[in-house]
Amino acid sequence: MNRENKRKQYEKGYYKTHACNDVFTCKVCGRQVFPAGAGSDHRNHCPNCLSSLHVDINPGDRESDCGGIMEPVAVWVRKGGEWAVIHRCRRCGILSSNRVAADDNPMKLMSIAMKPLCEPPFPLERIEEMVGLMGGDGSMQK
Length: 142
Hints:
The chain is of the alpha+beta class.
């Protein structure tokens, strides 16, 4: 069943109040994704590669016509310590936040979380010089 037919089958906002029990194949890594094990009734991304599809404007409405790949670009911690993944659409650039599911790949989550530390926006070999420019003495020795 393609996305357009599915949208016509259910009334607007159906997935806001009903569990999504559809098994799907990830468009990025090709794995079959089962809703069981997510720890939620609303599986919206692949637990292996954390990618998703841009199908919603608001969560559960299935109103987006974009259909682009939503790639995981960052993680953040919500109030109460719950992690969420920030997705960016490759086609239109929109950003969205999705709760981390119970069966999500922990190594992929950690690699996304560590990326800013592993790839800083400045050369690490110039950190002493930059600290000195900010008013510090620039010394890294104790």
